Amino acid sequence: MTPTAPPRLKAAEPIDGAANTEAARTLRANLRPVALMLPAAALTAVLMAIPIITTVVRVISDGGQGLSRLFDLPNIWQVLANTAAWTLLAVVGAMLVGYLGAFVLGSRHLRLIGLWRGLIMIPWIIPGVVGATVWRWSLSTDYGILNALLLRTGVLETPVRWLSEPSVVLWSVALVQVWVTAPFVVLMVSAALSGVPAERIEAARIDGAGELALLWNITLPAIRTTSAICLLTLVIWALNSFTIIWVLTGGGPAGASTILPILLYQAFQRGDETLVYGVALVQLLIGAVFAVLFARTLRTDMEELS
Amino acid sequence: MAIKPRTAVAAGIAVLAVVGIGGAVAANVAGGSPADENTVTWWVPDWDYDAATTVVADFEAEHPDIDVELVQTTGDTVANRVSVALESGNTPDVITDSVARVKGYADKGQLADLRDLYGPDMPVEDFAPGVVDVVSQDNQTFAVPYRWATNALIYNPDLFAAAGIQEPPATWADFAADAQALTQGDVVGTAWPMKGEPSDLTLRFLDFAVSDGASIDDGMPALTPEASTAAASLIGDSVTQGWASPSSFELDNTGIRELFLQGRVAMYLGGVFDVDAAVEQGAPIATALLPGPDGPGTAQGVGWAYIVPEASQRQEAAKELVAYLGQPQNMAALTLTFPARISASQDAKFTTPERSAYAEQLSQHSTPAPNDPRWTAVIQSVHDELQRVALGQTSAADAGATITGIAQEASSS
Amino acid sequence: MSASPDSTSRGISPLTSEELRNVGAMTDPAPGPVVTIAGAGHGVPARQQGLPRRTGRRHTPAKVATWAGLALMMAWTLGPIAVMTLTSFKAASDIFAVPTTLLPRTWTLANYTTVFTDSSMPTALWNSVQVGVLVAIATLVFCFSAGYALARFRFPAARPLALFILLGQVVPLTVVLLPLYRLVTSAQLLDSVVGLAFAHLAITVPLVTWMVRNQIAAIPVELEEAVQVDGGSRLDAVTYVVLPVCAPGLAAAGIFAFLQSWHEFLFASVMTESTRSRTAPVALTEFATEFSVDWGATMAASVVLTVPIVIVFIALQRYFVGGLTGGAVKG
């Protein structure tokens, strides 16, 4: 992160006589950030440091028992693979659907945009367990609306076991996660799109650029930071998502849709503390990798901008 | 520059926040938790809440020096709340919780000993077989069970008659044959709860295994490969062969009950609540003992109990309340399924004709379900293994061996 | 004379003092204030009304595509919602009827009656709103101060501290549960709206700090400096430059925080006891008895929970997605 006020001012067009005052003011002002930071930092320290440190300490003091028991579980590799697949499907899906939604809602050809935008948020507003249950009913093999529709319109001949066929089940649950999380992406990207300077787009259009080129070269790069935030949030949500899979499949059949958070919850329910901390540590590490990547990306962006 | 108004607003918000938080804290300290020595806090699930209010009113009339405060829990939240409360030491005085969790808490020393409540007023012999043992260890008893029930066979007499079957199945062979005969059109012979609580499926597995030679010792199942294989075959192969609903993967107990009520499942292993629901709706229903390999099978008892946390500040008063709740008439008032005390089951609501099979199953062919935390830890693995048989990914014999191995390994840990 | 930094070398459009004042004072509706979360920050507010509107046949395919896209999105979004709403009007026997029908055979209001008279849902709804609003406000207050400091100042602890705060977002909640519970209990804030709001800050602060930080960093510091050169304090710079320009993004972050709190079940189930503080997700479990769930009532409760929020959202959303609905851009 490049230094801000003083050097930039020196490099800029000089404001006659103002430099000294600026420098002096900046010196005093450097005390302020600490005061500003203190509430948030203290709060976060209290709220987050203790569990993070507790987790690490617990796992280590058990002699790494939590981790070794975790990796001794017969289905651990399936769970890790499921988690990876699930995260990929859910994040990519939500980004695609979210961007599509934001672009549709940002179009000049639309009326009543406020209404549509409000309606699109509903999946994020309804209680998670309710959304998951409605999808469970709809995806039910013999009694669900989706199969009934597909069978009646002739798209399918035999019902698809959306929630009980091991090869399909991850796609089904990822679909529901996309349904729930895409509105967040729509919200963020919509807000970001409205900040893209229109005259640049118009200028490029006048110069003859096609829509796709506009998208790729101007719009998307302009909202890169938002995209990064969306990605990170979606990954974190996917890594912690529990309700949807629990309600839809309970992690089944035969563990085909069990991901790390489900494993954590199962251990938590049985009071199996060592395992809980083991899984928590693994989740923490995975999440931390993404967080660091995110921070790095943003830092580069900031440096490029200034 | 308009500094003053803005600063005033900011300051105002800050003051408001401080006052608000301070006020909340003060309000909680002043009016919140009862400092009164003799107010007993009782966490009761919402399905018992109304009955509990009446019983508590009577209790307070008989014990004017003790006040009882009721706090509602819900089925979904009870496990979390109780375990967090016990861990943190900030506990109520009496808790209604499932018998299956008692041993786990007792092992951690979080429960008070209630052995001295058992005596002439509440003899151990009056309780259903094995239920007091299951909540005791080392000459201490950590709970007073008040509800205890098993599964039995629920079947639709109309569908049976239509298929030409006179009697409910008495043996496993009959069970399979009848189910296959009943599976036609929209109707399927039976179904298993393969979604939802994993313990629902493993309970039925154990029902079969115990009927075939396995046993439950000190809260831990002792399985044999033969019994496990036979049980796994009944559950898993029935799905692959089609006489148990392939939708079992998506069904929990409620789902199966609903399908039964609509005449789409002919028979299943279910609890007594389902019976009441069917009778209420006027749906055709009859009950029978669980079939075993050669005759009646053994079912496992599960239920709920009262516990007193060791951390409670008012243990004496709490024990008074629990003793009162353990009286037969009060136990009957608070029980939806069957009371844990045999003398309490004379009440009319427990002696309907549909319930007679349950009463017989409970008193003569039942054993308490395992509650050792070591078994609880492996329920998920056993459940998944059974699902693999139903998916056709493994054979019943292999699954039986695997499950027996899992149980043995858990016992030795 | 306001500052005119060497703009071209940094790719920033030059700002006239008039535009600067507009950005701050929001008096002129024409350039809508809109440097939001986007990293663009390359100066000026977007959708200006002066753009020539192109009409004509050339745009029909795009129009059709847009409306088709909208229809698709609405079907996808609202399909399950339709199921939820229609279920709330079904009697219990209808809900599990096989074959499933979308529409109720007989419409009934019994579920709504249950929700309003026989449950703690109305109180829970109010509690959830209180907690959510508290969380949103507290989050914005904390995160704005921290985000501003992180974006504007350089001090040695900045980077690790920022990363540390972000790591707070990745901790699984079940791990935070017990320490947080103990904290809230010791502050005598158990079973209170304030206590739960405090716990929810653990979920919202980490990410929102970063959101705000990035928004602020995207605003050229020249704008603030211009205010200070004109004689204002830093606080003035913040009030008249940063806040208005960030407003849409801040509102989005606030909504994010509100909804995160709204949804939260684990902490709420453990830290609330009575109707004094029980929130909506916990109250929903009331409709589940030991052996069965009253789905009709649950769905009715969900409708009751959702409708007000959606209405408020529709009413408020113009404030955070800035210029899109402003002025003459309407078709």
Structure at a glance:
The complex is a heterotrimer of chains A (306), B (413) and C (331). In chain A, 76% of the residues lie in helices and 0% in strands. Chain A is mainly alpha-helical and 306 residues long.
List the helices and strands and how they pair.
The complex is a heterotrimer of chains A (306), B (413) and C (331).
Chain A: H1 5-11, H2 18-29, H3 32-61, H4 65-72, H5 76-105, H6 113-120, H7 122-125, H8 128-139, H9 145-152, H10 166-193, H11 198-206, H12 211-222, H13 224-240, H14 243-248, H15 260-269, H16 273-305
Chain B: H1 3-31, E1 39-45, H2 46-62, E2 67-73, H3 75-88, E3 94-98, H4 99-107, H5 131-134, E4 136-137, E5 140-141, E6 144-149, E7 152-155, H6 157-162, H7 172-182, H8 198-211, E8 215-217, E9 220-222, H9 225-241, H10 253-261, E10 267-270, H11 272-281, E11 286-288, E12 299-307, H12 315-325, H13 328-333, H14 356-364, E13 366-368, H15 373-391, H16 396-412
Parallel strand pairs in B: 1-2, 1-3, 12-13
Antiparallel strand pairs in B: 3-12, 4-5, 6-12, 7-10, 7-11, 8-9
Chain C: H1 17-25, H2 60-88, H3 92-95, H4 110-117, H5 121-152, H6 158-167, H7 173-186, H8 193-218, H9 221-229, H10 234-263, H11 266-271, H12 280-284, H13 295-316
Question: What does this protein structure show overall?
Answer:
The complex is a heterotrimer of chains A (306), B (413) and C (331). Chain A is an all-alpha fold. Chain A has one domain: MetI-like fold (Orthogonal Bundle). Helix content of chain A is 76%, strand content 0%. The longest helix of chain A has 33 residues, at 273-305. Chain A starts with a helix and ends with a helix. Mean pLDDT of chain A is 80; it is low at 1-19. By secondary structure, chain B is α/β, with parallel strands linked by helices. Chain B folds into two domains: 39-148 and 302-358, 3-Layer(aba) Sandwich (D-Maltodextrin-Binding Protein, domain 2), CATH 3.40.190.10; 152-301 and 368-412, Periplasmic binding protein-like II (D-Maltodextrin-Binding Protein, domain 2, 3-Layer(aba) Sandwich), CATH 3.40.190. Helix content of chain B is 49%, strand content 14%. In chain B, the strands form four sheets. In chain B, strands 1, 2, 3, 6, 12 and 13 form a six-stranded mixed beta sheet that branches. A three-stranded antiparallel beta sheet of chain B has the order 10-7-11. A two-stranded antiparallel sheet of chain B has the order 4-5. In chain B, helix 8 (198-211) packs across helix 15 (373-391) and helix 9 packs across helix 15 (373-391). The longest helix of chain B is centred in the N-terminal third of the chain and has 29 residues, at 3-31. The model of chain B is unreliable at 31-35 (pLDDT under 50). Chain C is mainly alpha-helical and 331 residues long. Chain C has two domains: 71-108, no CATH class; 120-329, MetI-like (MetI-like fold), CATH 1.10.3720. Chain C contains 13 helices and no strands. In chain C, helix 1 crosses helix 10, helix 5 (121-152) runs parallel beside helix 8 (193-218) and helix 7 crosses helix 8 (193-218). The longest helix of chain C is centred in the middle third of the chain and has 32 residues, at 121-152. Chain C is globular, with a radius of gyration of 25 Å. Chains in contact: A-B, A-C, B-C.
